[in-house]
Amino acid sequence: MPSHVQIQEPTPEPLRRERDHLSASRAALRAMRHDVEALDISDVTGNWVNAQILGRQIEDRIKALADLADTPLFFGRLDYLHAPGADLAEGAGGENFYIGRRHVHDGDGDPMVVDWRAPVSQPFYRASRKEPMDVRLRRRFGYTGGDLTAYEDEHLTDATETTTTSRLLQAEIERPRVGPMRDIVATIQPEQDEIVRAGVTGTVCVQGAPGTGKTAVGLHRVAYLLYAHRERLARTGTLVIGPNASFLQYIEQVLPALGELQVKQATVDDLVAHVPVRGTDSARTATLKGDARMAQVLRRAVRSGIRMPADPVVVVRGSRRWRVPAYELEEIVKELAQRDIRYGAARDALPQRIAHAVLVQMERSGEAPDDRVQDAVARNPAVKAAVKECWPPVDPAKTVLRLLSEPEFLARCADGLFDEDEQKALLWEKPARGLGSARWSAADAVLVDEAYDLVQRTSSLGHVVLDEAQDLSPMQYRAVGRRCTTGSATILGDLAQGTTPWATGAWEEALAHLGKPEARIEELTRGFRVPREVIAYASRLLPSIAPGLAPATSVRESAGALEIRQVPVEERDEALLAACEAALGNEGSVGLIVADARVAAVGAALDAAGVGYLAPGEETSAAVRVTLVPASLAKGLEYDYVVLDEPAAIVSGEPDERTGLRRLYVCLTRAVSGLTCLHTAPLPTPLL
Ligand SMILES: Nc1ncnc2c1ncn2[C@@H]1O[C@H](COP(=O)(O)OP(=O)(O)OP(=O)(O)O)[C@@H](O)[C@H]1O
Q1: Which atom of ligand 1 is the closest one to the Cα of 172?
Q2: Looking at the domain 192-272+457-527, which fold is it?
Q3: Which Gene3D superfamilies does UniProt cross-reference here (predicted)?
Q4: Which of 17, 322, 461, 533 has its CA 20 to 30 A from that of 443?
């Protein structure tokens, strides 16, 4: 439930004091920025590279200290009963703290605003009457434009205080949506905060119905981890993975608004872009290529060139010849093949092992060779030739190309893993003659990435956030997992929104493929986006698409506008335009969601009527508030009013009915205030 507070009509005097604190904080922030701008680094940087790095850090710091006019410097205040102990670090010593997006201190170094991520800020999100966490007063501030105009108080230790729902929180949730996604620091809920502040070493997986704040939580978690473990994560890096470029565009401003400018964003396709993707696969083939069995096939393929030596290696040095017999070479090769090291690392180790065998012989015959001799022997042409024969170099892309082009090679590597019929489906229709002519598909690129990792270990980041995780294939989970082997991950998704034929059926499975089987699975059920009536309508699909999942509840007060209307085919365009027109009569954005196959026709109708529109991810403005959204790109996005065209076409646009209904579920759950659904064909049965 939303937090309960006593609403106080702000009296002029305290409000004036709070405004004074806001002005003083702004001035302090300006002074902090000025100090950074005035830094002269010419004395402290010995060389050009250091100067560049330091210069960039200073530039980032100046950007992070920018006073964004319409982003309030603080949104809350905590009055502690006692001064927090020294262990509560930031801000210790006082008992009132203003909570904001970044730390601001005055000329003496005393905090004017405390970062929302500091330990001292935590009770702002977690304290309750049951557990006040030593907080006497929690105050939330309301702003109009950049002006502080209201506040609400909760006296957490006053048993006599009556409680009501927070108007400021409710207003934030109900606010019309325009432009890109915004941060939620002022209103993070306790169950969300638990995930945001979970420790850096553990991986957390969040199952959540549409609009429960998964994306928001994931982004705030990165910001929190960067605050709590800045040095470690600055070294190792952080990455947010989203389903497509328009989604990434939609979320790209959240972290910079929180002062975090260094977080990389990518799609899974971006991560594995070793080869150009120009081809497509049928649903069946893509599912097979994404199957975890492919990992074994690839392992066999990469190692298929390993041969046991037939001949001894003879190394000539000066007047002496040293001979490593074939059986001894075989032992070395076998030992390396059994060890759990990358193909490339083993290949690098092999010449040294052979050289070592030579050195042992030299020592036995009374010589005293040192490391330099071993290196020289390892570089000897005879040794190099033996390595090339026993452990040939592997080009990962060429290996995958062979697998998908040569039936005999695939049969050898897939033996006992994929049956004949499956192998046929895996092979390219037209075998590629070389890398230049290969028509790689997205699923093929993931295989190439796996092959790269078999040859050389992929470097791991400190933390990875994976959004819309339910859509990944086992092979894609592996690709993400190898990018956080030594780090941790936040996995976000909704099993009911899985719209790929290979979408995961259970988080435990996905986590096993990611290499994080020990991850904690959390569930979020309170929806902040979709109004009650709309989520109830969409939830009619749940028994068909994800029988185990409970429908989300909605914390929005307004039940929402829901209209489902059948129109004759010849009136369809007119009805769509009228519905958009009506939606535009309200404040906020309008999403016109249509089956991918209908985008061109509906776009032409909008053009003909002179209605301007945007593509998903593009920023809405006062002048253009309609976005034409292909159903396949609706995931993760939201619009104040959604006009949904032809549900049956959205369902039939997918390779199977379950996937189609899931796609429809995604589209039905994008609305913040109202949904109008127009259809000429009968609605899919579960909606009737
Ligand atoms: N605590 C909160 N306070 C205010 N708004 C919130 C809160 N949590 C989430 N929201 C808002 O609810 C909307 C939905 O959030 P978000 O997109 O993160 O949900 P999601 O679970 O990722 O949804 P989907 O599964 O549809 O992608 C966003 O506008 C977000 O800002």
Answers
A1: 4
A2: Rossmann fold (3.40.50)
A3: P-loop containing nucleotide triphosphate hydrolases
A4: 461
